[in-house]
Amino acid sequence: MKGSFLRCLTTVAVSVALAVPAAAATQLTGAGSSFDFPFFSKAFYIYNQKNPDVTINYQSIGSGGGIQQFTAKNVDFGATDVPMNSEELARAGQPVLQIPVALGGAAVAYNLPDVTATIKLTRQAVADIYLGKLLKWNDPEIAKLNPGVNLPDLSIVVVHRSDGSGTSYIFTDFLSHVSPEWKSKVGVGKSVSWPAPSAVGAKGNEGVAGQVRSTPGAIGYVELAYVIENHMPAALLQNRAGKWVACAPDTVAAAAASKPEVSATNFSIVDASGANSYPLSGYSWIVVYKKPADRAKALYSVLSWLVGTEGQSNAKSVDYVPLPHNVQLAAQATLNQMQR
Amino acid sequence: MTVGALRYRRLKQRRVFGSLGTALALLCSVLAAGSLLAILGYVVVQGVSAINWNFLTQLPHPIGVPGGGVGNGILGTFIIIGIATAMAVPIGLLTGIYLALFGRGPIPEALRFLSDVLSGVPSIAIGLFAYAVLVAPLKHFSALSASFAFMMLMLPLLVRTSEQAIRSVPQTVREGALALGMSNFRATVRIVLPTARPAIITALLLAIARVTGETAPLLFTAFGSQYWEANPNNPMAVLALQVFNYAISPYPDWQAQAWAGAFLLVVAVFILSLGARLMLRRAMRGLDS
Amino acid sequence: MTDRTRFRRVARFVSPVDRGFAAVVYGGSILFALLIVGLFVELVLGSWPSIAAFGPSFIWKSSWDPITSKFGALPMIYGTVVTSLVAIALAGFVGIMAAVFLADFAPRWLATPLSFLIELLAAVPSVVYGLWGLFVLAPFVRTAVGPALQKTLGWTPLFSGPIYGVGLLTAGIILALMIVPTVTAISRDVIAAIPRDLREASMAVGTTKWETATRVVLPAARVGIFGACVLALGRALGETIAVTMVIGNRPEISASLFAPSYTLASVIANEFTEATTSIYTSALIELGLILFVVSVVVNALARLMIWRVRGST
């Protein structure tokens, strides 16, 4: 009654659906970090082309969501920017393997319309800006770091992530390392209470990038890929060795290389030592059960390929940083503990 | 009901005021319609470069592999909305019939109240409810749970409008049918409902338009997929979700596809509305003859 | 004897077909009620740990600190209420004016396409509203609308303070755009359904067309129009993604409409997928419960007003 029209639609849908090719023999599902999404979509696509009978369906619902779904056993693996802590591991009920799979950095982007030179900021300056102690771009603290640059009398609009995110975690981890005041007043987390009076929250990396791009005087932290793809000006940070470094694949890799013995309980590489290290770098992790309920063999093959040289070679083309070789080996060793 | 006292007496004054008022009303209509054109224009400018046959029929490609499309998302949208409609229309209609037939009283008032409350619940909360009911117990994501969430989003509009539509069918029509000896069932289904059909269809279309662009409930229900999928018991790609994921990515290639997908969504509803209007006109003509 | 009771007496549900029909109708309605009650129960169950931990102070506390697990919902309630009020004020005025025009004044060749375009506003995905708001509307508010308002009305606390572009006003405008189709479409139908006799009687007494439309027809249609506004308001209260992209996401209460703020739905959308501690998740679900309750309160008030209005006619 309601619809010869609706009936027509349904018929079309059903016939299309019937014409759709049957599902692959093995479908793995994974969920979690949105940071990993571009890298995973490329890597799993390539894997599927080499192994047509395995499809991996990964969706980015956020690191916390990934852990939730993984714990509820609704997905085969989770992806998270921060490894599961003891409370989360206890809730999983079964032994969990955590392996690093991706490496990335957060750039400090800004919007100063009439300034062409790249702004330099010390780690302390960044902390003071986000604490709300430095309120204008032409503050003497910033001016003395950028001699010869005509800084405008513009209020600093501090942009941060409003949604819980691994990038926020890396950033607040960094701030806690360089500023005891931040550590005691605010702390580290994927979502924190931002103290700056002009703080504005934007959703997602795109939100922060968009907010910074459209607000003169804004400053914000975004993933490396956004800065590269959108050609946004990003500040040079002074790392622990005292050198000014830009956020780039090689400086992030240098930060990772400075700490070869990374593990799920000791994973922070912010404020790394090393002349060429970029201070705002971090890993992203995949979590799997030591004894997966099923599809263990397929899961092992895919993840093994992913952390290996071949899988990691897909990283560069999507503005990600391949894992250092020693970390690849460590990841492989952890993965080998899987009972399959 | 009385006409308010006219405080100004000169006819010319009243006429001028009337013209100004009309102009204001026209301005408001144009403002609203114009906003849509502005938004639509922005969407087209951003996304028109990405629309082609491949875009409509292919699976998504990752970054770095040019081309690709949202074919599976389009299919998924149809399937999920189709199932949602199949679930929402019976429940909404039946509740509307109940409210129209048994109008006054505490229970009908409570039902109307519940319906209004439901319309104010954030879509993400409804998604969480669908998750609790259909995903967590079954331990996997599915298109069916997304349809369930969409059904709940569509219900308030359907209930309210079907009640009003049935109520506005003249009493004479109903009594005539009953006088001829029809049972209530036949009277309602054969006579009253068809008369109310145009309004119900309009409501259905508004409801479908509402859910076509919803993303939040899909995150925990349909989950999404990069592959073709027609089984409602599995995770499925949905166009609105793909648009959302692409739009917040850093890659201009994907962003253009996001805008193209958004354009598709608007066009889809455009076609639906157009189709319904044609149906309405045919139905009206049928009734008069 | 009213029409309704006469109908009831006349229509007996005697035959088995009718009994079956009645059962199906009852069944559908009960299912409908169960769904909503189930939703409420699910919300309460999920937020119970938070309710137990924070008690009623959750509603009037202002801090939102996931690190120390101190949660208070007041700024979010404020943001939700203010953006929805701005939205319904704008959409109500524009929508009802548009409905009057489309129903009574516009010639057919103009009314059809205009109605159509306004209805299409409902089809635009939320994320598109969000992105358009962020890239087009927010800069427009920051550079044009904001300064203009501040110049004329800056002496009121409502329009004081720095203008970021994102904030309560921008979010309110986006919401208004999203709910205008609901207001316009339903109001137009309601106005069109008012019998011609009323209009003709009014014009026979000597009123102009505009006076008829505003002083006779609108009051006659006010119950339906009010219902449309309530439906629209409901949509505004629950809108998530578009708002979260343009509201600034700052959990603070500020008198100025230019200030960034936060809504209940935005917090949930932003933080739910990343919330890993159970008290955090539970606090977020409690926000959903508060939103549910706010919706209940708004609808209860609306019903009260409709009841009062109906009683006086």
Q: Tell me the radius of gyration of chain C.
A: 23 Å
- Point out poorly predicted stretches of chain C: none
CATH superfamily of the largest domain in chain C: MetI-like
Strand fraction of chain A: 15-25%
- Helix segment count of chain A? 14
- Given the helix and strand composition of chain C, which structural class is it? mainly alpha
Report the mean per-residue pLDDT of chain A as an integer: 85
Strand order of the largest sheet of chain A: 2-1-3-11-4-8-6-7
Largest interface: B-C, 105 and 110 residues
State mean pLDDT of chain C (0 to 100 scale): 83
Quaternary state of this entry equals heterotrimer
Residue share in helices of chain A? Answer: 25-40%
User: What's the helix-strand series of chain C?
Assistant: HHHEEHHHHHHHHH
> Count the helices of chain C. How many?
12
Shape estimate of chain A = elongated
Total number of domains of chain C = 2
**The first-level CATH class name of the largest domain in chain C:** Mainly Alpha
Word description of this protein:
Chain A has 340 residues and is of the alpha/beta class. In chain A, 39% of the residues lie in helices and 19% in strands. Chain A has 14 helices and eleven strands. Chain A has helices at residues 4-19, 37-50, 63-71, 86-92, 123-131, 140-143, 166-178, 180-185, 204-214, 224-230, 249-257, 296-307, 309-312, 325-335, and strands at 26-32, 54-60, 77-80, 96-110, 120-121, 157-161, 200-202, 218-223, 236-238, 244-245, 281-289. In chain A, the strands form two sheets. Chain A has an eight-stranded mixed beta sheet with strand order 2-1-3-11-4-8-6-7. A three-stranded mixed beta sheet of chain A has the order 5-9-10. In chain A, a hairpin with a 5-residue loop joins β9 (236-238) and β10 (244-245). The longest helix of chain A is centred in the N-terminal third of the chain and has 16 residues, at 4-19. Chain A starts with a helix and ends in a 5-residue tail after the last helix. Chain B has 289 residues and is mostly helical. Chain B folds into two domains: 2-50; 55-287, Orthogonal Bundle (MetI-like fold). Chain B has ten helices and no strands. In chain B, α5 (123-135) crosses α6 (143-167), α8 (184-212) runs antiparallel to α10 (252-288) and α9 (239-247) packs antiparallel against α10 (252-288). The longest helix of chain B has 37 residues, at 11-47. Chain B is globular, with a radius of gyration of 23 Å. The two termini of chain B are 37 Å apart. The model of chain B has no long low-confidence stretch (mean pLDDT 82). Chain C has 313 residues and is mostly helical. Chain C has two domains: 13-57; 59-310, MetI-like fold. Chain C is 76% helix and 1% strand. Chain C contains twelve helices and two strands. Chain C has helices at 3-10, 16-54, 57-60, 74-105, 108-120, 126-153, 168-193, 196-205, 209-238, 241-246, 264-271, 278-312; strands at residues 64-65, 70-71. In chain C, α7 (168-193) crosses α9 (209-238). The relative contact order of chain C is 0.15.
